[in-house]
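To whoever picks this up:

The nightly regression suite flagged Proteasome subunit beta as changed. Nothing in the input moved, so I suspect the structure step. Input below, exactly as stored in the fixture:
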Amino acid sequence: MNSIASRFASTSASAAISRDEEENQVAASMWGSTGGFGNLGQVGIPSFEIPRVPDPTNFLRMHTDDRNDPSCRIKIQHGTTTLAFRFQGGIIVAVDSRATAGSYIASGTVKKVIEINKYLLGTMAGGAADCQYWETYLGIQCRLHELRNRERISVAAASKYLSNLVYGYKGMGLSMGTMIAGWDKTGPALFYVDSDGQRLKGDLFSVGSGSTFAYGVLDAGYRWDLSEEEAQELGRRAIYAAGHRDAFSGNTVNLYHVKEDGWKFIGNYDVTTLHYEGPGNVPGAVPGGYGYDVRTEGLHSRGAATVA
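Regenerated output under the current build:
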């Protein structure tokens, strides 16, 4: 009782620190110890065989690094563009749907958003199998947390758990660049977690081979006070730009909006259709195609000098 009273009687800064400590303790307790690593490999953590060679990292790189060695034996599916950003109306999550294995388009219908629960989403970038497996496993642990504690896990604790989990396999060839986005009792929250265990909190992230192009659109159009329609249009345009310019991204755009009452799937949009025709009759969208050549058709020749 005293701890509850002291928490709500403290300043906002100290309350935030206290809340972060509690979330870290929750994530650590899911590992079976105060420090977070006491029962690693013993309780609740999956294990798998690694190559029985002196240096597993170099072994995996030698057989799977298709970017530097096109003749490598195993071409892992990767190549993507994912993004997420916070704004006054929640969080927008947008992804493409292409997976490549070397120069081969392995799939054009990959679902790169993992629906962890009604209030929590995860994105996939890097190795498709790694992201799907570990984020699905994260969903299991989030559900167990709800059953044990009778409340939803916070976004911070979920991202911390994933960070701790993949850090235990650092150097073993995992390839992940994920974003964990959701809404908890503190409001909308967004974290970036990668396969090295790095964990960052922020308002805007884009991950993948096409993120350079997506960031160009996001940096030009992002504001905190965007309306819901404007934010959805910004996410659509950013993924379109990446899909149009990056050979390893494309096919379709999947768009999600995370709100206080949970996430909502906005729609699936074909990149080619967006280029020539636009998204159609959707709120906030400017009529016409997104493509530069479509928007400027016939304009480049106006006023040009003619040669007799």
